[in-house]
Amino acid sequence: MYYKTCESVTEGHPDKICDQISDAILDAYITGDPYTRAGIECLIKDNKLVIGGEVTSKADVDIIAIAKKVLKDVGYTDELIASYEMVNWVGKQSPDISQGVDRDGAGDQGMMYGYACTETEEMIPLPLSLSHKICKKLAEVRRADASSPLMSDGKAQVTVEYIDGQGPKISTVVVSSQHDAVVSQEDLYKYINEKIIQPVCAPYLREKQVINPHFLETAVEDNTTKIFINPTGRFEVGGPFGDCGVTGRKIVVDTYGGIGRVGGGCFSGKDPSKVDRSAAYMARYVAKKLVKEGYGDEIEVRLAYSIGVSDPVDVSVSILTGDRSKETEAVEYIKKNFKLNPRAIIEFLDLRKPIYYKTAAYGHFGRPEFSWEK
Fold first, then answer.
1. Is pLDDT of 95 > 70?
2. Which pLDDT score, from 0 to 100, does residue 106 have?
3. Which helix (H) or strand (E) element contains residue 263?
4. What pLDDT does 94 receive?
5. Buried-state track 149-170, b at ≥16 Cβ within 10 A, e below 16
6. Is the Cα dihedral 286, 372, 352, 97 positive or negative?
7. What is the per-residue pLDDT for 307?
């Protein structure tokens, strides 16, 4: 018996607001100039937003207008958006970086990891898949139900128990959602359980379930799924008014939920010349391919680059579930079948398109709309 736990956050989480603003600005630049080079980051707290970074582009973009649109899409009112103080500190990319990229070199040094498994149809860990789906469902229900008490900020976490010879079952699910001030705790618990948790998690829930067992005076029986809904009791103050947000801080949510390793760099706000993003996507593509080719049921691929140098300095494979003696063969398969320099990756995955805003919430992997997942 063993456990896996992963989490996700909603689009109204303050870190995800920053990711979405960074990628929405990147998409606007790429729409005007597909060869844009950019590293755009945000910090948000209360009604203050700072946008900084470096851009080299022929496009002319209204950065502040894009930020306001993202806040509107997340669910903020015009009145609240009008109260925001926004600072634009985006400058020009350093020529020292540009000269290396101009020679088709990598836009930075670092290592990137790709992961794939047979555990789910999306080839990502089951608790991560469920956590993403819960957070998506929170947003869908909030938008579809005019009387919904839910607001835009929220998180989900799922712990799955694995027992040999039995299907995986959810041991614990945690859902914390920002809500309006008038809903009672009991009504909110019922609403989230019936409209969010049950539709998403039903196939994996145990027959016995208990909501917020920490409020109970009696012990919870074994073989019971524990459901925690807003376990502190209330969650009225959310978004940047409850916590500071920064671009790139949810890299584990963006990738594999902590099951597979992650590299040193985040994704959002970065154009595809930056291997932090493009090589991570390629490593995921290759990991999926190796699983499909039968090298293992759970595989991790590592690519590493030097800034200004075209080819990777490291191509490695770890077969986490399967025959590890095939790792050397798997590396040779990759080198024989894939070009891994930045230009080749960009062309192969068709990355010079305004596709990045969609990636900025609910994970970059396990979603068939993206080229690295096909």
1. no
2. 78
3. none
4. 67
5. bbbbbbbbbbbbbeeeeeebbb
6. negative
7. 87
**Which 3 state secondary structure label does DSSP give 344?**
helix
At residue 349, φ and ψ (nearest 5 deg) are -95, 0
Identical fold between 14-102 and 110-118+257-373: yes
Class of domain 2-9+126-239: alpha beta
The alpha-helical segments, DSSP class H, found in 33-114 are 63-74, 78-82, 95-102
**What's the mean per-residue pLDDT of the chain?**
95
Range 247-264 average pLDDT: 94
Give the pLDDT mean for 200-212. 96
Q: Using CA of residue 138, residue 75, residue 66, residue 247, what is the dihedral sign?
A: negative
Q: Domain 14-102 class?
A: alpha beta
Q: Please give the CATH architecture assigned to the domain spanning 110-118+257-373.
A: 2-Layer Sandwich (3.30)
Tokens representing 4 are 């896996």
Strands 169-179 and 224-229 come out as parallel
pLDDT at 103 over 60: no
Helix then strand count (H, E) for the chain reads 11, 12
Q: pLDDT digits over 177-198, tens only?
A: 999 999 999 999 999 999 999 9
Q: Are 232 and 189 a contacting pair, CB within 8 Å?
A: no
One-letter amino acid at 325 equals S
CA–CA separation, 176 vs 198, rounded Å?
A: 15
Q: What is the mean pLDDT of residues 195-221?
A: 91
Segments making up each domain of the chain, as ranges: 2-9+126-239, 14-102, 110-118+257-373
Model confidence, pTM: 0.95
Q: What are phi and psi of 370, to 5 degrees?
A: -100, 145
What backbone torsions phi and psi does residue 201 show, to the nearest 5 degrees? Answer: -105, -5
